[in-house]
Amino acid sequence: MLAYILRRIMIMVPTLLGVSIIVFMMLHITPGDPAELLLGERATEQALSELREHLGLNKPLHVQYGLFLKRLLQGDLGETIWTRQKVWIEVKQRFPATIELSIFALGISCFMGTLLGIISATRQYSIFDYLSMVGALAGVSMPIFWLGLVFMLIFSLNLGWLPLSGRLSIDIDLEIITNFYILDSILTRNWAALRDVIWHLIMPAVTLSTIPTAIVARMTRSAMLDVLRQDYIKTAKAKGLSKFKVTFKHALRNALIPVVTTIGLQFGVLLGGAILTETIFAWPGVGKWMYDAVMQRDYMVIQGGVLFIAALFVVINLCVDLLYAIINPRISVS
Amino acid sequence: MPDAVTVNQVAEIRHPMVEQLSQLWRNKTAVAGLIIITTFVLMAIFAPLLSPYDPLETSLYDQLKPPAWYEGGSTKNILGTDDLGRDTLSRIIYGARVSLIVAVVSVGLAFFLGTLLGCLSGYYKGAVDSAIMRVMDMILAFPYLLLAIVVVAYLGPSLQNAMMAIGITYVPRFARIVRGSVLEEGEKDYVMAARSIGAGDLRIIFLTILPNCMGPLIVQTTLSMASAILDAAALSFLGLGAQPPTPEWGAMIARSRGLILRASWVMTFPGIAILLAVLGFNLLGDGLRDALDPRLRD
User: pTM of the predicted model, to two decimals?
Assistant: First the structure.
């Protein structure tokens, strides 16, 4: 097992290098002077020449890439154009908001998706099955940036049930420790804040979870149908076990294996969808920050943000693979 | 009667494609998808005939008119107008053009590049294979939509760049499928036979092997059309795709954000259009997968 983990980590290295090469090349195939691109139009000649020196822009391309990689390994992602803040520090500040939203959304997807899938499979061709699968297909086809706006219109502007945007109401005080607001409010035993934070989370999280929920529901249904057809399920039923026991104890365990893989794959959907969701709901995470950077042409931020998200994605995928190897004894680790 | 015998034999050995088409026809989801897609395609082709107004024509006196069935709405603008007095229905009809073109061009690009790379990879194996597949892994290391957003951010926001960005991010799915099929098919006897009668590599790859890998490729193309429409709308919504005043569904939603309280209908209809178009391709893709892949048939 240890050897397998080590090998998987070794495989991750070339992928991460590839990501850095793509991000590095992107700046260089863009027309114009990279230094000017990174510092913006208002940069002084002195700042430009300093940056050119720092990035080694007058050196050959492979040397430049070497320098780029060296800076990356030192955690130096440069400075933002507008706030002159270290990019890495800004990433660290915003990252918890994105993770909080993504985990909440993933939780909804896992719960709702598997539940709908199981019920549909056990009642194949019933009205419920039909409706939930049509719903799932619509979910997969959903433009979530539109759905988010529709939710806002209905639940916030018309019914007034949920807050329109942001992470926390202005009149609520919360001592920030980890920047994970749920965690912070629990740590400080600030229950009013906890309620407010969760209230703010619901709409963006449900919006973001739409597509993953639909995908998980479809996968769970087909995996369950596959398993329910097998002989050992017939045996279990013949033994006189209750339907509940057959479904949840015997069938579900085997059906869950492909479902877990599907859930693991949803992180990519979530991290990409976070850019749309955070933009709509003014959620101060990495996604909205990247969007603002794209709008302001802050290439240092774009570069840093994309490197961070892609690296995070690669690491999460590694964790999912390892988890998968642990829960599925049929996977040979050698 | 020798004729009758021949007819029977023909019926028994129906061409596999005919068999698959009839499978497809019996599949309700596929037919539903096909109907939706055909509607949008007809809308796109006959847009000038179908749309009551010029989609770009602004009208000072007709700003934010509600749909016909709302109070104050009129049959003049069935789906109402936007803040510049442009007719929503006409813009949605012309929007079908934009979305379908984007889908066809970006998926076409991905199909072409992906198939080419997948063939090279699966046929020549070894170093070529690992080199191509490592590059594909690099592209796949980016979460969905992120790479497209970044590519457009660097190249500059425009519909052409959005199509290119989406196309590039879709290359790996095609390359992987084709590579797998080519690896599998390449071992079979008919390929050996073609080689032994002196067929060249190109001929073997594109005329002998590739036609036998079409099933999964067609399914992937259909499903990719669905996600391309969705991604292009998302890019346009973020201001990175179609630029105003192009009648594009995602851009229409972005513009209507500020009107959400005053005139919610401006936002509603383009969203429904996106949902239906994407749903159409997803339905057809699902149906095709059932028809073309007997292993998945229930």
Answer: 0.87
